[in-house]
Specification:
Blueprint lengths: L4 E10 L2 E11 L4 E6 L5 H8 L7 E6 L2 E2 L5 H6 L2 E4 L11 H5 L6 E2 L2 E2 L1 H15 L14 H14 L4 E5 L7 H16 L3 E5 L3 H7 L2 E6 L2 E7 L5 H9 L19 E10 L3 E9 L3 E5 L6 H8 L7 E6 L2 E3 L4 H6 L2 E4 L3 H5 L6 H13 L6 H15 L15 H13 L5 E5 L7 H16 L3 E5 L3 H7 L2 E6 L2 E7 L5 H9 L3
Parallel strand pairs: 3-10, 3-11, 6-9, 9-10, 15-20, 15-21, 18-19, 19-20
Antiparallel strand pairs: 1-2, 1-4, 4-5, 7-8, 11-12, 13-14, 13-16, 16-17, 21-22
The structure holds adenosine-5'-triphosphate and magnesium ion.
Adenosine-5'-triphosphate binds next to β2, α1 and α14.
C-alpha cells in the first residue's frame, strides 16, 4: 500500500532559470515527511514533478523502485500520488461536490450519478470537518473552507502518497488538530505523506522525518525527534537566526489619531465596532476565524457594504465607495486572500507593483523606467526571490507572492496600512524581515494595523491589540496585558 520514492539528481529549468540543481533524497514508505525550506527553495516545484504537474528537466524519479516520469497529474494519480496545491485549484462557480469529483465523475451507466457523488462528498466533508452541504457553491466559501474542500478532493482519489503543500496556512487551530488526526489515521492505513509547512511547531508535532531544501538543493534529512526547532530554522536559512522581533518602541500616546472608526456595522459580520489608531502605532487585531476582522476592514476601505458607522481619517470624516477612494485618502488594505484580491497573477511583477499607484493618480504610468526601478527596489527591500524580473506573478513561489503583495500595497505610500495575515506562507527568515519592516513603517509615523491569527506575532509587535469575538469588540489589551492566555480567553469568550 505505501509508496517509497527516490529522487535521483533531479533538475528543473524554467527557460534559462534553473530552480532545482540536482536534488537527491528518499521518502521512506508509510511515514509523514516534513519538507522544509525558505520561500523559493523549490519545495512546490519538486512535489509538482512528483505529482505529474511538471516534468523534470533531468534526473530520475523512482516510485517503489521503478523509474517514473508522469505526463500529467492523472498518470500520477493512477500511481496513487496526489498533490494538494498550495494555491487552490478549485472551480469557483461549481459546487463542493462537483469540485471534488471534477474529472472523476461517478457514473451509473452512461449518466453522471449525482446522488452517489453527493453522498460520498458528504462523508468526505465529515472526515475533514467541513460543516457545509455538498451543493454549496465554492465561491461562497471562506479561504479556510476552500482548503478543506481541497483536502476532501484529494481524499476522494484514495492516495497512497499524499502531498500537502502548506495545508494549514489558512486553518484555525481546531481545524488543524482535526487535520492532524486525519493524517495520523491515514499513516496508520499505510499512506505516505509529504507535509510542507513554514509552521515549525506543527512540523515538530506531526512529522516523523524532516527534509530540508535550500536554493534548489537538498540540504539535510533527519528524524524529527531530536531536531530542535531552532536547528530546523538554521538549516533552512543556512545561518543563525537572531531575535525574531525588533525591540518595541513606546506607544505613541500623543500622536494624532490617523484612523477612527465608530459604530461600524457590516450585515452578517460586524456589530458596533469602534476603535482608533494613532500615527506611529502598531495596532493588532486578534480573534478566531469568522470573528469578522477581515470583513470589518473590507467594509472600512470600501470593498464591502456597511450598514452603519463613520470613518475619519486625520480627524475628517470620509466616505469610501471603492477601495480606490481609501487609497486616495492614504489607507491600503492587504487582503488575506492574496490570490483573489492581492495580486493579479497573470500580470507582470512590475504591473502588479505599480497598479495601485495608477489607481491613486488615475493616469497611466508614463515612465516605464521608473516602474522598473520601483520593482528593483522592491525586490531588494523585500527579498523577493525570482530568477527573472520580467516574469508574471504566477511564476513566483507562494511566499514570494506574499512579499510582492506587501510591496504592492506599500507603493502608494499609505499613512494607514492594514495587513491581513501578512506573514502567511512566508518562511521564517522573511517573517523576521516583515516584522522589522512593520516596525520601521510605524517608526516613520505610519499607523499599522496587523490582523493575525498568530498570537505570538501580535504579542511581539503590537502596542495594543483589539480582540474581536462574533463580530464585536471583545477587549482592547495594552502592551502590559498582552499574553496568549489573555488573548485566547477574550477571543473565545471564556474570560
Ligand atoms: N512556472 C514557473 N516559471 C518560472 N519560474 C518558476 C515557475 N514555478 C516556480 N518557479 C520558480 O522556482 C523557484 C522555486 O519555487 P517553488 O514554488 O518551488 O518554491 P517553494 O519552496 O515552494 O517556496 P514557498 O515556500 O514560497 O512556497 C522560485 O524561484 C520560483 O520563482
Ligand atoms: Mg511552495
Amino acid at each position: 500500500m505505501s509508496v517509497a520514492v527516490r529522487f535521483n539528481d533531479i533538475r528543473k529549468d524554467f527557460g534559462p532559470v534553473r530552480v532545482l540543481h540536482g536534488v537527491t533524497f528518499e521518502l521512506a514508505p508509510g511515514r509523514i515527511h516534513g519538507l522544509l525550506g525558505e520561500n523559493g527553495a523549490g519545495k512546490s516545484t519538486l512535489m509538482k514533478i512528483l505529482a505529474g504537474y511538471e516534468r523534470a528537466s533531468a534526473g530520475e524519479m523512482l516510485v517503489d523502485g521503478r523509474a517514473c516520469s508522469f505526463g500529467g497529474s492523472r498518470e500520477a494519480e493512477a500511481a496513487g500520488i496526489v498533490l494538494i496545491h498550495q494555491e487552490f485549484n478549485l472551480a469557483e462557480h461549481l459546487t463542493i461536490a462537483q469540485n471534488i469529483f471534477l474529472g472523476h465523475e461517478k457514473k451509473r451507466g452512461l449518466f453522471v450519478d449525482d446522488t452517489a457523488m453527493r453522498r460520498e462528498a458528504r462523508a468526505l466533508l465529515a472526515q475533514v470537518g467541513l460543516a457545509r452541504g455538498p451543493d454549496t457553491p465554492v465561491r461562497e466559501l471562506i479561504v479556510a473552507e476552500k482548503q478543506l474542500v481541497e483536502i476532501a478532493k484529494a481524499l476522494s482519489r484514495h492516495a497512497r502518497l499524499l502531498i500537502m503543500d502548506e495545508p494549514t496556512a489558512t486553518l484555525t487551530p481546531a481545524e488543524t488538530a482535526r487535520l492532524f488526526a486525519l493524517m495520523t489515521r491515514l499513516r496508520a492505513d499505510g499512506t505516505t505523506i509529504v507535509y510542507i509547512s513554514h509552521k515549525l511547531d506543527e512540523v515538530e508535532h506531526i512529522t516523523d522525518d524532516v527534509i530540508v531544501m535550500r536554493d534548489g538543493r537538498f540540504v539535510a534529512a533527519s528524524a524529527t525527534a531530536g531536531l530542535a526547532r531552532q536547528q530546523m530554522a538554521n538549516l533552512m536559512v543556512g545561518r543563525e537566526l537572531s531575535d525574531m522581533f525588533p525591540e518595541k518602541t513606546p506607544a505613541p500616546a500623543d500622536a494624532p489619531v490617523a484612523l477612527r472608526v465608530s459604530g461600524l456595522a457590516v450585515p452578517g459580520w460586524v456589530e458596533d465596532l469602534s476603535f482608533e489608531v494613532r500615527a506611529g502605532e502598531i495596532l493588532g487585531f486578534a480573534g478566531l476565524v469568522g470573528a469578522g476582522r477581515s470583513e470589518a476592514f473590507e467594509a472600512i476601505v470600501g470593498l464591502r457594504e456597511k450598514r452603519a458607522g463613520t470613518i475619519s481619517v486625520d480627524g475628517r470624516e470620509v466616505v469610501f465607495r471603492h477601495a480606490r477612494d481609501a487609497v486616495r485618502h492614504g489607507i491600503t488594505y492587504l487582503s488575506e486572500d492574496r490570490k483573489g484580491r492581492g495580486l493579479h497573477l497573470d500580470l507582470s511583477l512590475q504591473d502588479n507593483l505599480t497598479l495601485m499607484t495608477l489607481e491613486r493618480y488615475g493616469r497611466p504610468l508614463i515612465d516605464l523606467k521608473a516602474g522598473r526601478r520601483a520593482l528593483e527596489a522592491a525586490v531588494r527591500e523585500f527579498g523577493i526571490r525570482t530568477g527573472d524580473l520580467s516574469s508574471r506573478a504566477r511564476m513566483l513561489s507562494g511566499g514570494n507572492q506574499q512579499k510582492l503583495a506587501l510591496a504592492k500595497f506599500l507603493q502608494p505610500d499609505p499613512r494607514v496600512i492594514v495587513l491581513d495575515e501578512p506573514t502567511r506562507g512566508v518562511d521564517i527568515g522573511a517573517k523576521r524581515d516583515i516584522y522589522f519592516l512593520i516596525q520601521r513603517l510605524a517608526a516613520s509615523g505610519r499607523a499599522v494595523i496587523v490582523i493575525s491569527s498568530e498570537l505570538i506575532e501580535l504579542i511581539g509587535l503590537a502596542h495594543r491589540v483589539v480582540v474581536m469575538r462574533a463580530g464585536r469588540l471583545a477587549a482592547t489589551l495594552t502592551e502590559t496585558q498582552l499574553n496568549e492566555e489573555e488573548l485566547i480567553a477574550h477571543a473565545t469568550g471564556t474570560h
